[in-house]
């Protein structure tokens, strides 16, 4: 049985704001195996096929995976998406092994605030059934995605400001224990959220639902490739197990090449936790 550290945080079930309130962390504790479904969901709910209740865990979990996929392909310091609503969902067992979810849902761009338009998307999310963990496969379609303002001018100004070796960005606890994110740190919070989506997409299964709870630290690194290089330590909240999992990652970004994750390292928070989630 794998062992992880957990900490209880008061988090929203649906991602609706770029800086959800985060409670002060209580003393750390170690728990048993991760990946259990919420107590309100039965085994029959998780294994159900056909039309699904859009507000229930199986539909929301699959839509969250599609959201991570969307952010890895289209996120930036000035664009990061949050799940607004699942409108329709269904599931079917596939002959090759696994379960495929068909989804109709909407997302909003957190960088645009509450006044930003909702974006309607559809997706096929396949959770393969294999002996070794294999991340879900996603096919995503979003209406009018290219019509959303890419804020190219803001991205260029941000890049020019921080690409200098003298910028030396360093910060901790974003958001802080009161849920606050300073205006200067907002782009770095979004960058961390996009970079964390690469991990959350890879680690997702039918027994997880990941959200980034907090950026524990960010430190700018030197780069010879004209890329903004940042080392993040992020805390990922798995809603079903209520675990907080810590990852260190090295990410790069430029307006031309987008966000790339170069290295990831699971960070155990208990002395006897020796294996990463998957």
Automatic annotation (TrEMBL):
<dbReference type="GO" id="GO:0005615">
    <property type="term" value="C:extracellular space"/>
</dbReference>
<dbReference type="InterPro" id="IPR046350">
    <property type="entry name" value="Cystatin_sf"/>
</dbReference>
<keyword id="KW-0677">Repeat</keyword>
<feature type="domain" description="Cystatin LXN-type">
    <location>
        <begin position="170"/>
        <end position="278"/>
    </location>
</feature>
<feature type="signal peptide">
    <location>
        <begin position="1"/>
        <end position="24"/>
    </location>
</feature>
<dbReference type="InterPro" id="IPR009684">
    <property type="entry name" value="Latexin"/>
</dbReference>
<feature type="domain" description="Cystatin LXN-type">
    <location>
        <begin position="48"/>
        <end position="150"/>
    </location>
</feature>
<dbReference type="GO" id="GO:0008191">
    <property type="term" value="F:metalloendopeptidase inhibitor activity"/>
</dbReference>
<protein>
    <submittedName>
        <fullName>Latexin isoform X1</fullName>
    </submittedName>
</protein>
<dbReference type="InterPro" id="IPR049897">
    <property type="entry name" value="CYSTATIN_LXN"/>
</dbReference>
<comment type="similarity">
    <text>Belongs to the protease inhibitor I47 (latexin) family.</text>
</comment>
<dbReference type="Pfam" id="PF06907">
    <property type="entry name" value="LXN"/>
</dbReference>
<feature type="region of interest" description="Disordered">
    <location>
        <begin position="22"/>
        <end position="54"/>
    </location>
</feature>
<keyword id="KW-0646">Protease inhibitor</keyword>
<keyword id="KW-0732">Signal</keyword>
């Amino acid at each position: 049985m794998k062992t992880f550290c957990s900490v209880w945080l008061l988090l929203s079930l649906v991602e609706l704001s770029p800086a959800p309130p985060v409670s002060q962390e209580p003393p750390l504790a170690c728990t048993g195996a991760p990946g259990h479904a919420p107590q309100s969901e039965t085994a029959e709910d998780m294994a159900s096929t056909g039309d699904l209740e859009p507000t229930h865990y199986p539909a929301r979990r699959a839509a969250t995976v599609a959201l991570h996929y969307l952010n890895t392909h289209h996120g930036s310091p000035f664009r990061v998406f949050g799940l607004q609503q699942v409108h329709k969902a269904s599931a079917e067992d596939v002959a090759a092994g696994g379960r495929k979810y068909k989804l109709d849902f909407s997302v909003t761009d957190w960088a645009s605030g509450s006044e930003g338009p909702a974006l309607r998307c559809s997706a096929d999310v396949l959770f393969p059934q294999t002996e070794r963990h294999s991340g879900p496969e996603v096919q995503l379609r979003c209406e009018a995605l290219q019509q959303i303002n890419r804020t190219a001018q803001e991205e260029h100004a941000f890049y020019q400001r921080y690409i200098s070796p003298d910028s030396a960005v360093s910060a901790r606890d974003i958001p802080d224990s009161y849920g606050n994110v300073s205006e200067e740190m907002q782009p770095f919070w979004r960058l961390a959220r996009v970079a964390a989506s690469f991990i959350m997409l890879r680690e997702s299964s039918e027994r997880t639902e990941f959200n980034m709870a907090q950026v524990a630290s960010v430190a700018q690194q030197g780069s010879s490739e004209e890329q903004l290089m940042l080392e993040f330590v992020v805390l990922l909240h798995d809603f079903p197990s209520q675990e907080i999992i810590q990852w260190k990652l090295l990410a790069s970004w430029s307006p031309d090449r987008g966000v790339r994750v170069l290295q990831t390292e699971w960070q155990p928070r208990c002395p006897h936790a020796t294996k990463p989630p998957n």
